[in-house]
Design goal:
- Helices cover 47% and strands 11% of the residues.
- The protein is an alpha+beta fold.
- The chain folds into 6 domains: 78 residues, no CATH class; 70 residues; 82 residues, Arc Repressor Mutant, subunit A (Orthogonal Bundle); 164 residues, TATA-Binding Protein (2-Layer Sandwich), CATH 3.30.310; 86 residues, Death Domain, Fas, CATH 1.10.533; 98 residues, Death Domain, Fas, CATH 1.10.533.
- It has a 7-stranded antiparallel β-sheet, covered by helices on one side.
- The chain is globular.
- It starts with a helix and ends with a helix.
- About 1% of the residues have low confidence.
Length: 614
């Protein structure tokens, strides 16, 4: 159930089937399902969404009636799935057949796929890179193949998903098979089985033993496994496979060092894979592994890293519902630098947000703190308190039992991790922000030109990987702004636009005023916006969101950071809106409507009105 919740949808319907129910009474069947429900840990409210009493069946030998009811239930569930009835391009069926025909080869290159595309008739073939990416993403989503549109991986398509899964399953083979089949690599396998450190020679021996073509495609397979967080490269001859690590964390080894308080990321349901992939990603940054004599300090539930300043060290641990961080220094007279903690928190949250995205939005987390500096990954020593509870300077610990109550000083607990206060506005920064707004407006008013031509006028390189024309135009203008920090930007912008025969866009350089875009009939227009509005906007603005948030005042550097940290478009939109509110704390309903009016998105305003009237 947890796997369905983590890897599928938080509302994915589950059908429970009990077999061998012949000779069982109705009461016995009912008791059986009650016991099943108990084992599914139904205390987790989020898991209850998957279960329905109408979707449970007891099937016995020759029980055709129950079997027919089960078939009807499966058909009913399938017909209600999101993609049911969705229209797809005709050519995609041709590609599906092609993939099936080539599946025996296991892996296909992007070049071979393009060659096949060229054999299709003009009305069926895919004409752009974006069309090809969309087709591959669809078949990736339905698990027909594996493909990531990322550097190095983009040119490789894994056609046989089960073959790829078996490649990893063979690596983490059980002890009995290893002792029988890998006798010549006994010491290497024993180390791997204890620490998760996989030697290249051992890997080759395992795959040679299975003889399924893995060695032929070793480099591509390992790149994909790294991308999925199944392992991390430690050196040219060694990989780390987190799920094989059985070393126990020696708490006493680290408890005497000067340390920060403990930062926690709490999950409703913590996928173990997120912690393992977090550790693997930190190794790839790369953060050096803290050493205990000649052995690296990577344990089953804890990893210890050396921060890049070579002074601070990071304890990273996992409990049933949390990932915990603590920073320490080995200098007994030293102190932990707060700025290092801030940097570490920012990096870890960036990684976690990216990882959580791969679990279908079901692995969101909340920030919390341990009530004492002691008790890393130890629930008996100290308790976890949500960050939102730290609203007073001092208060009684709300989480510890009555026999262990103690006072908490908010500053003492949060000072290492809390975000820095906003700095006073910098006039130069405010000027750049205003220029970015003008560039954003101008990019929406360009007509009858090409990005290649505009790039030549502004003497910058065209960004060919941006699909949206207006966004491409903005990126060209933004590159020009960054390239020329010390010129009169407004005059130069007007001059170049007129030279490029874009006089209509040039007019907006001097005349644009956001206040000109008034919206009437808005309930309480000066009221601050909340996450409720952001959820609606995330659904309506996947195409226009970058222009929208820039109109509200979000800086381009903030947008680029969000695009780097989040892969899914709706998540990007939502995070961009949160960041906009943080950078522009006076953001109100009227501000949203002015920006939407400029973008000619009155449909979104109408979608917001019911919320505002309620």
């Amino acid at each position: 159930m947890k796997s369905i919740h983590q890897y599928g949808s938080d509302k994915a319907p589950v059908i429970l089937v009990g077999t061998h129910s012949e000779n069982k009474t109705e009461k016995e069947k009912e008791l059986f399902f009650r016991e099943v429900w108990k084992t599914l840990d139904m205390k987790k409210k989020s898991l209850k969404k998957h279960i329905d009493v109408k979707r449970r069946f007891a099937i016995g030998f020759h029980d055709n009636e129950s079997l027919e009811k089960l078939k009807m239930s499966i058909a009913d569930v399938v017909c209600k799935l999101d993609h049911w009835g969705e229209e797809l391009p005709q050519s995609w069926a041709m590609f599906e057949t092609f993939f099936q025909e080539k599946k025996i080869r296991k892996i296909l290159s992007r070049g071979e796929l393009q060659s096949f595309n060229e054999t299709l008739t003009e009305g069926i073939k895919l004409h752009t890179i974006e069309d090809m990416d969309a087709m591959l993403q669809f078949f990736h989503d339905i698990r027909e193949l594996i493909h990531f549109n990322h550097q190095f991986l983009n040119e490789v398509i894994i056609l046989d998903v089960q073959w790829f899964a078996d490649a990893f399953r063979n690596v983490i083979t059980d002890k009995n098979h290893a002792q029988e089949d890998l006798f010549d690599f006994a010491s290497e396998w024993d180390k791997f089985n204890e620490t998760g450190e996989l030697d290249k020679a051992l890997l080759c021996a395992i795959w040679r033993m299975n003889n399924n073509g893995y060695l032929e495609h070793k480099e591509n397979i390992m790149m994909y496994m790294e991308k999925l967080g199944l392992l991390a490269k430690m050196s040219d001859k060694t990989w780390y496979v987190p799920c094989m690590n059985k070393m126990q964390f020696p708490v006493d080894c680290f408890s005497s060092y000067p340390a920060s308080t403990i930062l926690c990321y709490t999950f409703d349901i913590l996928p173990v894979e997120i912690f393992h992939r977090l550790v693997a990603t930190c190794m790839q940054i790369p953060w050096e592994i803290f050493s205990d004599e000649e052995r690296g300090c990577i344990y089953q539930t804890v990893a210890v890293f050396v921060f890049h300043d070579q002074r601070h060290n990071v304890l990273m641990g996992m409990t049933q519902t949390e990932i915990q961080l603590q920073v320490f220094v080995t200098d007994e007279e030293g102190e932990v630098d707060i700025s290092a903690c801030h940097e570490i928190r920012e990096k870890i949250e960036s990684i976690l947000n990216n990882l959580a995205d791969t679990f279908q939005n079901n692995s969101g987390f909340h920030v919390a703190f341990k009530c004492k500096p002691a008790g890393f990954c130890d629930s008996k020593e100290s308790s976890v308190i949500n960050e939102s509870k730290f609203t007073r300077a001092t208060f009684q610990c709300p989480s510890c039992p009555a026999s262990k109550k103690h006072p908490i000083n908010t500053n003492d607990i949060t000072k290492y991790w809390k975000k820095e206060l906003q700095k006073k506005p910098d006039p130069k920064e405010e000027n750049i922000s205003a220029l970015e707004l003008i560039l954003n407006v101008v990019s929406k008013k360009m007509r009858d030109t090409t990005c290649c031509l505009l790039a030549s006028y502004f003497e910058v390189a065209e960004d060919i990987f941006i699909r949206n024309f207006e966004e491409q135009v903005f990126r060209i203008l933004y590159k020009w702004l960054c390239k020329n920090p010390n010129i009169d930007h407004l005059n130069e912008l007007e001059r170049i636009l007129n030279e490029a025969d874009q006089g209509r866009a040039a007019e907006y350089v001097r005349t644009f005023n956001m206040a000109d875009f008034q919206c009437r009939d808005i309930p309480s227009p000066s009221l601050s916006v909340s996450e409720k509005e952001f959820h609606i906007l995330s659904q309506y603005l996947p195409k226009d969101y970058t222009h929208f948030v820039r109109l509200l005042g979000l800086r381009q550097r903030s947008l680029e950071k969000i695009e780097e940290n989040f892969q899914k478009i709706e998540k990007r939109v939502y995070e961009a809106l949160l960041q906009t509110r943080e950078e522009c704390p006076t953001l109100c309903r009227q501000d949203l409507c002015r920006a939407l009016t400029f973008l000619e998105r009155n449909d979104v305003i109408e979608a917001l009105k019911p919320l505002w009237k309620s």
